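#struct-help
A.M.: can someone run this one for me? Single chain, 221 residues.
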Amino acid sequence: MKMPSPGFDFSSAVPVIEDLDGDGACEVIAIARKGGSTFVSVWEADGRRRRGFPARLGGQGSSRLLVGDVIGDADKEIVVTARKSAVTFHVRLLEASGRFARWTSPVLPGTPGQLAMADLDRDGRVEILVTATVRQRQVLHVLAADGSPRAGWPVDLGLASQAFLALGDLDRDGRDEVVAAAGDVLNVLQGDGTAFSSTWPVRGAGRLAACGESPASAAFG
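D.P.: on it. Structure tokens below:
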């Protein structure tokens, strides 16, 4: 059996298959850990490692990643989280070449969790959603395409060890809502961070199971 990355630990990886460079061939992308650091690795379909990878992120971040055109230049970026300190992190973008994009996001408190991406306001540019564990609570941040925090966010999702997300247009108005499950709380939020209706949030709903629209697993890989 071929082992393309000796010494790398993929036990927590959530791989993504995407055509990074638009050549019609898909690549395999995954986050791995080695020696206390986190790396993004990319392979061509034939198993060859893509030039420029693995790219070192630094300390441990989330094992999840996204792929999409965040900057709006028609090229896809790899969206990842990376530790800034033991209690903070930030979101970073990797280009298909393995270089970090000239793109900045604020330093966020806590431990990074789920990632998702959607055009919440249908302006043609995506937003990045990222959950964080802060003092045993789940907090949901939304960043604009330029990395700046969106107005109305973050939103405290409640006391829980992790959160789950789904995105979909519940009222068919052309804009996606954010469904978030954290502990015993299930919430539906509009793109500006406010509750979808007075019904939300509800308690005792259990773990999220999305129906009809893209589940979180499809949204953030």
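A.M.: thanks! The first helix runs from residue 216 to 220.
D.P.: also worth noting: Residues 48 and 148 are 36 Å apart (CA to CA).
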